[in-house]
Amino acid sequence: MLGEVVVKWVEGIQTLLPMCLTGGYFCSLRLAPKQTECFVRSHLEYAIRTGREARFLMCVYFEEHWEDNLEDFRSSLNIQSPPPPRKLD
Q1: What is the pLDDT of residue 85?
Q2: Which residues neighbour 28 within 8 Å (Cβ) at sequence distance 6 or greater?
Q3: In a domain, 84, yes or no
Q4: 11: exposed, middle or buried (C-beta count within 10 Å: 0-12, 13-18, 19+)?
Q5: Which residue from 2, 4, 3, 9 is spatially nearest to 50, judged by alpha carbons?
Q6: Cα separation of 89 and 3, whole Å?
Q7: Is residue 72 part of a domain?
Q8: Of 9, 21, 31, 88, which is least packed with CB atoms within 10 Å of its CB?
Q9: InterPro entries from the xrefs (predicted)?
Q10: What integer pLDDT is reported at residue 86 of this predicted model?
């Protein structure tokens, strides 16, 4: 669920649609305490940076890029690699 919350925040920042912004906010309230800590410490900053700096993702035909190298594709969209996963115990 943590990844879906990050996606909602990126979508909300890029589109500025109220339903996306409130979805990201309220979904983040449903995270477990350890997930919330991980989200606040690293993933929220990543989502904000990606939403601001990446190409507008709603116009990307992802289906046309299945065979592309992931790092090259991220670079073409101006998306940095996500924070490393943390063990949530």
Answers
A1: 78
A2: 5, 9, 36, 39, 44
A3: no
A4: buried
A5: 9
A6: 17
A7: yes
A8: 88
A9: Coq4
A10: 73
pLDDT digits (tens, 9 = 90+) for 15-44: 999 999 999 999 999 999 999 999 999 999
**Mean pLDDT within 50-56:** 98
Do 20 and 49 meet the contact criterion of CB atoms below 8 Å apart? Answer: no
What residue type is 21 in one-letter code?
L
Say if 87 falls within a structural domain: no
Q: Which of 50, 33, 39, 34 is nearest to 4 (CA)?
A: 39
Overall pTM surpassing 0.90 (yes/no): no
Tokens standing for residue 11: 């979508």
Based on the structure, what is the number of domains in the chain? 1
Residue 35 is predicted with a pLDDT of 92
Domain interval for residue 36: 2-77
Residue 89 has pLDDT above 70, yes or no: no
Provide the residue type at 13 as one letter.
I
How far apart (Å, rounded) are the C-alpha atoms in residues 89 and 8?
Answer: 25
11: helix, strand or coil? helix
